[in-house]
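[INFO] parsing input record for Nonribosomal peptide synthetase 2
[DEBUG] input buffer:
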Amino acid sequence: IELARHLRGFGQIHGVEAPGLGAGESPVYPSFDEMVQFCSDSAAGVAGDGVYIGGHSLGGHIAFHLAARLLDRGVRPKGLIILDTPPNLGDIPVADADLTEEETRVFILAMGIGGMLDQDRDQLKDLPYEEAKKVLLDRAKNDPRVSAFLSEDYLDRFLRLQMHQLMYSRDVVLPERKLDIPVHVFRTKNHAPEVANLFSAWENYAAGEVTFVDIPGDH
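[DEBUG] output buffer:
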């Protein structure tokens, strides 16, 4: 709600669903460059002059590349919106470094789907993966935002895609350039100080002022 309040007046929001997540789609595990191209192709009809380009987490890095591509073609986005990701992913302490594969799977579900459903992560972290899935599916049944699509199959596909992205995300490096458009960085307040401090580095990627906004919640 707080994020929506800050984005009021930014215009319509169009989203790109990751390949392989849709019902009936075959699993797809693209590289980062392939994801940038996929999002560029998918957003071609709406991304242009006077629109904001934005992304959450790794999507923030994809959005940076999309904005840079548009500028290189002489198209000027209205601005770049970064949702809760610092520019240097490799500097983030690895929260799941000491976890087993089973614990990592639960961690990803708890962070991604659990956060969306306002599920207490501490109630999931000690559960086996299949039991954690059941908790989330039971909770989703009564949530009109997700009940239409959040199934066991969706959770499994989400997990596989997230684990694939996790493997390469720390090697993603932004090009050394400053975008000549406004940059708005939204950072959730639950980050540890060593992570929260990384966000200021976005000033190195903007030719003008960077707006930083802290909002309640978790990643």
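[INFO] Residues 152-169 form the longest helix (18 residues).
[INFO] shutting down worker
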